[in-house]
């Protein structure tokens, strides 16, 4: 690590001293600048769930299993990663085109709701109910419930019919009601929503249960209306008891419980995207930093063809399970003119509560797992073998370093699980 690297960690992004003015963030969430009003988020400023992965996002495998009504717009829109959009003057056969889930104006008893399968089961910390562009048609109130739904019960649900104008048939309602999802645990009680103006569209709510693992949620609208996006932020929980020590797994994968806990810069894209499932869908779906201003005026290379630069950028990850690394994949997919010159990977073992301090440290306890490796544009790079991966002990933190700056799409850290370090040594 080079001196002078800028540090941005979890939970340190909020400006202190709340006023009624807009509270600006000094860090980017999901690679996009956001600003929050005090009235929108209140005491939730003390929380950092916005830095956690969206467990129901499409790219993470989230899925709508059932919706009572898709009169104006289908519930699948709730799970999009893209920002909601407005199309002026565009109408469907059922009414104004809207980028979200919008049910018809209810003219029968009850209220509208949908069941969503988390793409990645885990502990839920908070929600963003985004009502963007739903100004005269947003629900006055909503609530969120959750449960662990066994596969045999999920399979009882009717086949999802996703199209504008859809309304659940009577027999479908009878089948779904047999699950008694109205009795699922309440994570957000019935709460008021605000209209979808730029100042009020983000409705943030903490989860009442951040400790238990859930697989499904029920999103209730009272009584009807439209919501653009529903983001469910949490910590993935993977059942490692099913994985033998002999099996090679991606220790840092989001689906396996990996988590980005800090980074130096994320000007164009958040490094938490690196451990998402599948290949990146665009530059926005990776980690991209700003161009470093300390770059030499005229670049030079060393004897290995690496640029001679003083500055580097980094991202630190907590592994889903401690282990031994045997192979590393670094994919620069989509980064054709803005890929890093080279990268390296470091690892260490950090006891609970020491992560924030250790990830900013230079030298010990960090050990080099993968030395400087030249990168190419728009290409997956695979590094393995005893001559490439340096000998090391059990690690539970890894730090990806790029030089001098640029973008990376995905990171895979393959290895074998090992029990935690018990000798108290912070090193590998």
From TrEMBL:
Residues 61-236, 257-417 form the Allantoicase domain. InterPro entries: Allantoicase (IPR005164), Allantoicase_dom (IPR015908), Galactose-bd-like_sf (IPR008979). GO terms for molecular function: allantoicase activity. Coiled coil: none annotated. Gene3D superfamilies: Galactose-binding domain-like. It holds the Pfam family Allantoicase. Belongs to the allantoicase family. This is Allantoate amidinohydrolase. It comes from Daphnia galeata.
